[in-house]
Write a structure and sequence with these properties.
The protein is α/β, with parallel strands linked by helices. The chain contains eleven helices and ten strands. Strands 1, 2, 3, 4, 5, 6, 7, 8, 9 and 10 form a ten-stranded mixed β-sheet that branches.
């Protein structure tokens, strides 16, 4: 009798599996049926938050359901990323990841509790290029002049950072390596404090996001000498890239919409299609550009390859400098 029961059970298993699969497919086809949350791993009001809220408002219309933003700052985006990594893979909890989430954190923190493999990318959303911003108190007006001047400084060039392992600190190492000069980091508690000393000439340079550096440059308080990207910034077409000047220095922050790994393919296609429509809107592109972000739209595969390449690039810089934060 026991053998008979076991045989019947084995015969029922395929039917049960098929039934569950049918339920999953039906659920994915109906998606979305409730509000979607985009987790922003930073506080409200920052660059990431602004981009997420802009996109969320338009995704609400594109998907026909409310798309909310949940700010979960802390531990260099790791708090928010860990939350989404553990969330159900149903498309209702998403992450607005930053470059630090996957490109630098895995190299800086040995005890990190998530991996890139814990996520499925929807698409890259935007890039935020870094620039070399120098004090107007130094004589250099071009990248080449800066290199020549820097090599004459016996103690090296000082550059402002907001701490060891931060994006402006690591980018400074990248630039120093590319230019063949010595750059000494000077940590500040805030970017605002760093700007005060940069303007006053108490620190020579800073590697900063273009959106933050541009106002000081426009006011003549500092000088942006070069953009760390593959192309010139359309809002400042007179500023060259390091690449075009012959220096292998590219560095940009970026934001990407990610879902927990294992999210149904149909749900991912719906999210990707909706986001693609949003990123094609002129209003969205104009607002991102005004905030110093370059709008980007990529396939899931292209986004994954982009993140992996960025992870390798920054890993070489961080590991080469021997930086470890835990």
């Amino acid at each position: 009798m026991e053998t008979t029961m076991r045989t019947k059970l084995f015969r029922l298993l395929p039917m049960l599996a098929l039934s569950l699969l049918t339920i999953d497919v039906a659920t994915a086809q109906e998606y979305p049926t409730k509000p979607i949350t985009i987790v922003v791993p930073f506080g409200a009001g920052g660059t990431t938050d602004i981009a997420a809220r802009l996109i969320a408002s338009h995704l609400t219309d594109a998907l026909g359901t409310r798309v909310l933003v949940d700010n979960r700052p802390g531990a260099s985006t790791m708090v928010g990323a860990e939350h989404v990594a553990k969330a159900p893979a149903d498309g209702y909890t998403l992450l607005m990841a930053a470059a630090s989430t996957f490109s630098t954190n895995p190299h800086l923190y040995r005890k990190i509790k998530y991996r890139l493999e814990d996520f499925d990318p929807v698409s890259l959303v935007s890039k935020v290029p870094f620039v070399l911003n120098v004090s107007s108190q130094i004589p250099a007006r071009t990248i080449d002049e800066f290199v020549a001047w820097a090599k004459m400084q016996p103690q090296g060039v000082t550059y402002a950072t907001t701490g060891v392992g931060t994006s402006n600190h690591i980018t400074g190492i990248l630039v120093a390596n590319a230019l063949g000069i010595r750059m000494v980091d000077v940590p500040y508690k805030t970017n605002a404090a760093a700007n005060v000393d940069l303007i006053g000439g108490r620190v020579h340079a800073q590697l900063d996001a273009l959106a933050s550096a541009q106002p000081l440059h426009v006011e003549g308080k500092t000088r942006i000498l070069g953009v760390l990207d593959s192309q010139r910034w359309q809002g400042m077409p007179d500023i060259p890239t390091f690449v075009e000047k012959g220096y292998k220095a590219e560095g940009a922050s970026w934001f990407a919409l990610m879902a927990p790994a294992g999210t149904p393919a149909l749900v991912m296609r719906k999210l990707s299609g909706a986001l693609s429509k949003v990123m094609a809107m002129e209003d969205v592109k104009a607002k991102l550009l005004a905030g110093g972000q370059l709008p980007v739209s990529m396939s899931a595969d292209a986004t994954l390859q982009f993140i992996k390449a960025d992870h390798e690039r920054w890993g070489a810089v961080i590991n080469g400098a021997g930086i470890q934060l835990d």
